[in-house]
């Protein structure tokens, strides 16, 4: 996996430079907020509830520490069979249902999928017009990479269990492998992110779950958030209001900018700039 690491790192550095971003990691807040209320239904995972919970806790903390004073609905992590997904419809207990399509001890896969679905929760996901939902999907792909890399650093000194310490390399290599396999990275590197988004705008509008397209854009956003992780909190307001039918990406960004508190509007403006859009 070391050759993949070098290749991934080269792509990452190039795209970070393309976006005009540094690679500095902002120091995390000292106080770790308590994670939202959630439970794990271990049936069919072929692993213990305690171990699954340990991985999900570690993954969730990488994002949750940047969401002070945020109340989200309780949720449950269950086994899925048709890919990971967060259901719009709550269960009988009024919990949000996060389905992870993994099993046994594939901890990197658990972390990757949980981070993506947890990011949907943090975004206040809505079942509305799908035209700009590709952006939320891209954010959630970004979250998966951000979380895996954060866990790899954390597990070096503070793994959930002492004998999991060496697994940190697997977490980092999993993220590196995802990055290096994104076949559209070269297109972004050549064209720039604004042109890339415009080129694929119709594809994204028709189907927001374009994993390869979303994943390539996520590599650029990854270093935007790694440079200053407190930027994550701004995603709380991307679904503050329902998306009107036919809304353009430019209109979506303007609406997000308006909904966000003043201190987060600079983050929204900077995201818009990365995509070649200037918000009012």
Give the key terms.
280 residues; disordered N terminus; 52% helix; 4-stranded mixed sheet; mainly alpha; Neutral Protease, domain 2
Element layout with pairings:
Elements: H1 2-18, E1 38-40, H2 49-64, E2 75-79, E3 85-86, E4 96-100, H3 107-122, H4 133-155, H5 168-180, H6 185-191, H7 193-199, H8 201-206, H9 211-227, H10 249-259, H11 262-274
Parallel strand pairs: 1-2, 2-4
Antiparallel strand pairs: 3-4
What does this structure look like?
With 280 residues, the protein is mainly alpha-helical. The chain has a single domain, classed as Neutral Protease, domain 2, CATH 1.10.390. It has helices at 2-18, 49-64, 107-122, 133-155, 168-180, 185-191, 193-199, 201-206, 211-227, 249-259, 262-274, and strands spanning 38-40, 75-79, 85-86, 96-100. The protein has a 4-stranded mixed sheet. Strand 1 (38-40), helix 2 (49-64) and strand 2 form a beta-alpha-beta unit. Helix 3 (107-122) crosses helix 4, helix 3 packs across helix 5 and helix 6 crosses helix 7 (193-199). It is globular, with a radius of gyration of 18 Å. The N and C termini lie far apart (45 Å).
